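User: I'm writing a short methods note and want a consistent example. For L-lactate dehydrogenase, I'll paste the sequence; you return only the structure tokens, no commentary, since I'll be parsing the reply automatically.
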Amino acid sequence: MIGILTVNDHGGGQNVAPYGGIEGRLSTNPLACAIPVEGREPILLDMSTSVVAAGKVRVRRHRKEPAPEGWLIDAAGNPTTNIEDFYGSPPGALLPFGGIAAQKGFGLSIVVDILSGALSGAGCTSQEGSRVGNGVFITVINIASFVDLSDFNAEINRFIDYIKSAKRSPGVEAIRIPGERGRGEQEKRTREGIFVEESTWDQIQEVMRKYQLPIPDPLI
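Assistant:
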């Protein structure tokens, strides 16, 4: 089976500006796809249609680091690397992915919002504000209904081998298919544990104290 999934935010989290706009109208509107491949780990794509997920902006804020160029605009529509512009009043906004071709990320975000919101009945982004939850669109494709499974797997394996055979840029150890980097990180975290930012840990402890829960000791 091949799985394709899109998610909007019921009109909440309007922190992504439309292409040509300077204020948030869209969520980060992620999409995901999983494709099984015999003899290999599955291909796994999980991405936002904005240049970056909002959580990565929050991580940089906790670290007191600036945003890379091309992530954000301030409330006046000016490019900015100041994270606080994103959280200002009025707030700035994330940009759709694509850089100088951001109309492509914007177009994909519109499709995600319609599939997840209008088609599901949950609703697209709107002026009414946010609701708790997400609108979701899920498609499951039975590969065998279209092509023989052995032919499909042979073609995908051939395709991946061909992609990976491309000459690499200096310093690049390997060309990774979607999902490979994440699996490498999973293996590393399984061995070494999950690092938690100090500021994040402080917030976790604050919530646990509020609800009188025991605070565990760090493993390392």
